[in-house]
Amino acid sequence: MNRSALDALMDRAIAAGLLPEDAAPPTAEQRPWPVVLLTALGAWLAALPLLGVIGLLLGDLMRRGSGPYAIGLLSLAAALVVLRSRALPLFIEQLAVPALLVGGGSLAFGLFRDLSVQSAAAVLAAVAIGVAVVVARAWLRVLLGAAASLLIALALTSGHSGPELHTLASRLWLSWHLVLALCGVAIAAQPSVSARAAATLEPLCAGAALAALAALALWSGSTMGIGAATSDIARELSAPLQLSSHGTSMQAVSAALAFAAAAWLARAWPAARQPWCIGVALACVALAAFMPALGAVLLVLAFGASSRRWRMAAAAAVAAAWIVGAFYYQLSWPLATKAIVLAGAGAVLGGMAWMGSRGIGTAAAATAGTGTPRRVGSGITLTAVAVLAVANIGIWQKERLIATGAPVFVELAPADPRSLMQGDYMRLNFRVPSPVQAHLDKRLSPTRPQVVMQRDARGVATVLRLDDGTPLAADQLRIELTPKNGSWVLVSDAWFFKEGEAERWSRARYGEFRVDASGRALLVGLRDKALQAL
Q: CA 506, CA 503: separation in Å to the nearest integer?
């Protein structure tokens, strides 16, 4: 709760006679963040060597019998005693945090050694929640809530059998939705529990919800080039879902949750019941029907905004923007289809924003008695329009590259036979000379390298060398490489196709690219040994 809201609440309590007239809100200790940062750094620098020495002395005990449990419980107990002390100096507080991590890590070592992954993760999640109840630090409770949510997800997703990627993907999706549901139940229970319990639940649920929002965003894949390191895994997980009953069910649930978000806002804010707001809600529901992770995120956004949990609402808004942007990378959808969906949603939202701006006077009157800022509805609409604009700009850039880029064909090299075909996914490996690949493997710079390629009369290009900035010949061009699984590849190392078309694509011998003058390239198709389109 922010300071102004707390002051208003206290004024109403004093007016109602619940508090004395001289009552004042408690003053929180103000610690400048540079002081906190430097103190924490000093504490960690002092604690880590000591922990290393203790680890060397007790290393034998850590590996045998009940040693990990004894060390873990003792470390946790010592850390909690320190953290529960009153008027604790900041340096001592920061010293207790490494001990807390050592205790949790030691317990994790023993539990994962002696139990199944599901059981160990469930026990550790319970330990994290128990520590959060005991420790009296809101920021630690947030971190422990995030850790508990990750462990709950691990307990729910581990141990599945079979090679089907959609099984793991649906379990991940379900686990994060269950985490958010548990957070919702806990927050709903706050009015009926004691003030101490409510104060514990708030940061604990905030941490768990933040972790779930981040996980749903990453589950959706890369967005506009951000998070490329996770895009391979996300695409392998989510692409088959578009072609399965699991994906259809998840999209239906996402749309239902988006509808629930709209209903929640309409109940909390009477101003949101206007026709243009209903149009915005319907556009968001339609988008959620295409994006399985979006509905839950919109529901968190609606709840956070209506309950004035602005940090949670901001995190949900960022996650929603990520998910909408990641929709572009759903390769099982044609670019034209994605462009139509996003452009249509953008047009609808733009029209609704225009309608809302015309009726702003009515909206102001409707919200005057509710205390809801009249700019909230317009802000939500403009944010949604901005998100869709960013996504459509990315699609427009790719479509322009396809239309105007130079056609280039690159020969495929043999790939691992075990990974060549995986359901509706084909592994690609383009020919790169060994000296060039060796230089790439040793490269440490985070900037994307470019290779110089020579193109023959047919348009087939061969990698010559890494680009060093020297002028190119008339038959040469540059192509920018992409990071994939710790190495650099030509644009992509995968090709997705519809179910039942494996035989068609198995005849591929060349990858077809479109390349612009700056070296940006896009894989647009595969060709056979005669360069005929498949």
A: 5
